[in-house]
Amino acid sequence: MREKFLTAAVALGIFAVMFALNDLMPLHRDDYDYSLIWGTATHINSLADVFESTWRHYFEHGGRIITVFWLNLFLWLGKIPFDVANALMFVALVVLIYVHARRALKFNEPWILAAAGLLAWLCLPHFGEVAIWKSGSTVYLWSAVPVAVFLLPYNFALAGRKFGGKIFAVGMFALGIVAGCSVENLAVTVTVISLAASAKLKESWMAAGALGNLIGLAVLLAAPGNFVRYDVQGAGKGIFAHVGNQIAGNAEMLIFLLPVVLVIFCAIGVLKNSSPKPPRVNKILVGAVGIFLLSYFGGNLISGAIHDFFAGVIFPVLNPSVKFMERFDNFMAKSEEFVIYALILATIFLPLKNSLGVTKISLRSALKFEPVSYAATLLALALFNNLVMIGAPTFPSRATFSSVVMILIGAVAILRIPAVSEKFSRNVILKAGAVLIGGFTIISALVITKELRAENDWRISAVQKAAAENKSEVTFTPIEIKNRALRHVFYVDFDNSVTTGGLCKFYGIEKISVKE
Question: Cα(499)–Cα(194) distance, rounded to whole angstroms?
Answer without folding.
Answer: 39
